């Protein structure tokens, strides 16, 4: 197993934050069950916002809707702790912010990443990575949150996936040379996304998210009725303008559907 080079990560972060202190407390492991779970355990032991867990491999990585995230060596697996000032009903804004922040940061590096609603990072129509946000709530307010991110770097991926190292080779251009550099860009991206949400608000954040959303204009079926993707609500629901409707019911020109209720799918690739 290739060791993660913590000094290379620190040097990359120092180049970004220059004369400031690095705003992250780094905890690096070879193997954990789940970076999210490990970080929650560290939070219980007193770790503060900005704490980050990074692992070269997960044995029980978490995906959305209770799915397992395949986490073989060669990928990037990390989690960051934050304390957002948000109502529990707005928890999905943390995912939107993180997705936008990471995507925007990678695009600055010359990588043409997009966002697939609600929480996937896509490259050439295939899945590059995903985000899983977990929160703790007290009296209707989010008191603590963990942002988990998995990105395909040099690991094996399914047919609907893509890894960044092979993609860069196909472009004959190395925008990001090391896993540790990718890690720094993801951390910077999460932080910038959360700051955008907290400072500029959900309306500005959402407009930026929609600019990078690959699903705009896609046609999907909901209960056998055809709709076209026209946006995302502030709660993270997908907005659909309906082209067909039940003639026995009142006309509903636009509806919204919650994450997890429909799948927008990925294209299969042929070798």
Keywords, separated by commas or semicolons:
271 residues; alpha+beta; globular
* Main β-sheet description: 8 strands, mixed
Strand/helix succession: HEHEEEHEEEEHHHEEEE
Query: How many beta-strand segments?
Result: 12
Distance between the termini: 28 Å
Class inferred from helices and paired strands: alpha+beta
Runs with pLDDT <50, length 5+?
Answer: none
Q: Radius of gyration, rounded? A: 19 Å
Helix share bin: 25-40%
Alpha plus pi helix count: 6
Based on Cα principal axes, name the global outline.
globular
Give the amount of beta strand, in percent. 25-35%
Instruction: Tell me, rounded to a whole number, the average pLDDT.
Output: 90
Outline the secondary-structure elements.
Layout: H1 6-17, E1 25-32, H2 35-44, E2 51-58, E3 76-82, E4 86-87, H3 92-108, E5 114-116, E6 120-123, E7 126-138, E8 141-151, H4 164-170, H5 179-200, H6 202-211, E9 219-222, E10 225-232, E11 238-242, E12 254-257
Parallel strand pairs: 1-2
Antiparallel strand pairs: 2-3, 3-8, 4-8, 5-6, 6-7, 7-8, 9-10, 10-11, 11-12
Helix pairs in contact: 1-5, 3-5, 3-6, 5-6
Account of the 3D structure:
By secondary structure, the chain is α+β, with helices and mostly antiparallel strands. It is 29% helix and 28% strand. The strands form 2 sheets. Strands 1, 2, 3, 4, 5, 6, 7 and 8 form an 8-stranded mixed sheet that branches. The relative contact order is 0.15. The mean pLDDT is 90.
